[in-house]
Amino acid sequence: MLGQMMQQPLLISSLLVHAERHHGEREIVSRRVEGDLHRYTYRELGARARRLANALDGLGLAMSDRVGTLAWNGYRHMELYYAVSGSGLVLHTLNPRLHPDQIVYIVDHAEDQVLFFDLSFLPLMAAVAGRTSTVRHWVAMCDRAHLPADAAKIPGLLCYEELIDAQHDRYDWPIFDENGASSLCYTSGTTGNPKGVLYSHRSTLLHSYAAALPDSLNCSANDTILPVVPMFHVNAWGLPYVACMTGAKIVFSGPALDGKSLYELLEGEQVTVSAGVPTVWQGLLAHVQGNGLKFSSMKRTVIGGSACPPAMLRTFGEEFGVHVLHAWGMTEMSPLGTVCSLKPRHQQMDKDGRCAVMAKQGRVVYGVDMKIVDDDGNNLPFGSEKSGELLVRGPWIVDEYFKGEGGNPLRADAAGRGWFPTGDVATIDADGYMYITDRSKDVIKSGGEWIGSIELENIAMAHPAVAMAACIAAHHPKWDERPLLVVTKKPNAEVTKEELLAFFEGKVAKWWIPDDVAFVEVIPLGATGKMQKNKLREQFKDYRLPSA
Ligand code: AMP
């Protein structure tokens, strides 16, 4: 027997309609590429998104055609989020920090028909414009007055503001199958070509419900959200959708991601919740600490994308009263998998006990199922000391990559259900809190035993002279691999190799302590702000450990 409830497809356009009707006066504030601060309301977002949807219709696109964006976080990007997906097209957010060759590959693979871009990326676009095969229209996201003279390098370039000025703000958002594709994001692809993850309206809306929950990102109409995480990386962790769903004020930082600019925006707009990768927060904390400042409104910050060093968590909490929510996810997971919200049992613990829990990646958000398996694929019980490969399943987790790239990514269990192998190595404790010890390809195997590189990096990062630390495997004739710690120092700070190695004593088993330290000027960061250990391994491939 079927239930007798209304069938209403979960469509992205419904979020915008809701925000406009019930939170029409709430603000959206953006630092623009043009240099100024722009502010308007959800009501105006709705009207401009409808004009844009009319303009997209006028460009002669067909249902599910891909529309690419190369843009910072900002209100025009938000308009594209809603107008493109809402009208049945697919929003393809491109990472502008990728190499131009990769951008050409991704645009061609996605078969983008239109490319919208911020003015900062005009030179990049001019360089790739002649090399892509499917793009019919290029649109600069500005008004005519801001178009520089060399814009003519892209023949037929359209101007965003002219495009929408010419349109009416009446538009009926079409109703279609909630399983229809809504947006597309390519994985960072450190090896091989990047692969596309094609989200649906249904997966995006279910993810938004889950993300907004109190034990997830905890967002409400009373919040002001500043997603530092870019809108070109997994839909800014879903926050542009959560904002419309909850009616929170949203603040966009544009291209200015340095500590000073972020601090000014956080304070100026009285932001309550923020979200980003650890490397971004390092810059912010350095600015705040260096200038004796405080946060007057920020209550929570979500840190994810790579492991949040416990030292950062403590600084935010103990020095500034900002609660850190450590979160874990992947492009393939929309991205949210776990969030480290405490249970009543943990609230009773002392500060150190709570910090130890908060440094874990956290427990699953309802909707996601996770498990760890050993080398032979056997399930490891929650609470087992052993780490294993982390597998996930759920309604906002990828089933296959765009165009079937790379074949079937799933692994079947005994009941024939598919699980997505995350490539992360983790433990899960008896309370269900997951802790990542490594990426499987970053694991250090010494004499057949695993050494957790993230734990070693976290310890090094707690040293006052260390700005960033990466631990990689170096070849060893006896042990096969031994840990080598690669470090950048804070400006004007000094520490010797011996002092740093002594800092590990008593904190980990003796055989985990790195064999050597290499000081470098920079640790390479990838397009989403993560340390590129594959590049470091290449750089140090001929390195001889003193113990070797
Ligand atoms: P991406 O798809 O580019 O967002 O990368 C996803 C990968 O980033 C995950 O599989 C993890 O290896 C890593 N990652 C994300 N969040 C965390 C976290 N909180 N701690 C450790 N690693 C993380």
Description:
It is a single chain. The protein is an alpha/beta fold and 548 residues long. Among the domains are: 12-209, ANL, N-terminal domain (Rossmann fold); 444-539, GMP Synthetase, Chain A, domain 3. It is 29% helix and 24% strand. The protein contains 17 helices and 27 strands. The chain has a 9-stranded mixed β-sheet with strand order 2-1-11-10-12-13-14-15-16, sandwiched between helices. A 7-stranded mixed β-sheet has the order 7-6-5-3-4-8-9, sandwiched between helices. Strand 20 (411-412) and strand 21 (418-428) form a beta hairpin. The longest helix has 17 residues, at 42-58. The N and C termini lie far apart (70 Å). Adenosine monophosphate binds at residues 187-188, 234, 304-307, 326-331, 335, 361, 422-424, 436, 439, 528.
List key phrases describing it.
single chain; 548 residues; alpha/beta; Rossmann fold; GMP Synthetase, Chain A, domain 3; seven-stranded mixed beta sheet; 17 helices; 27 strands; globular
CATH homolog superfamily of the domain at 12-209? ANL, N-terminal domain
What Rg do the Cα atoms give?
24 Å
Mean pLDDT: 95
Strand order of the largest sheet: 2-1-11-10-12-13-14-15-16
Structural class designation: alpha/beta
Task: Count all strands and give the number.
Answer: 27
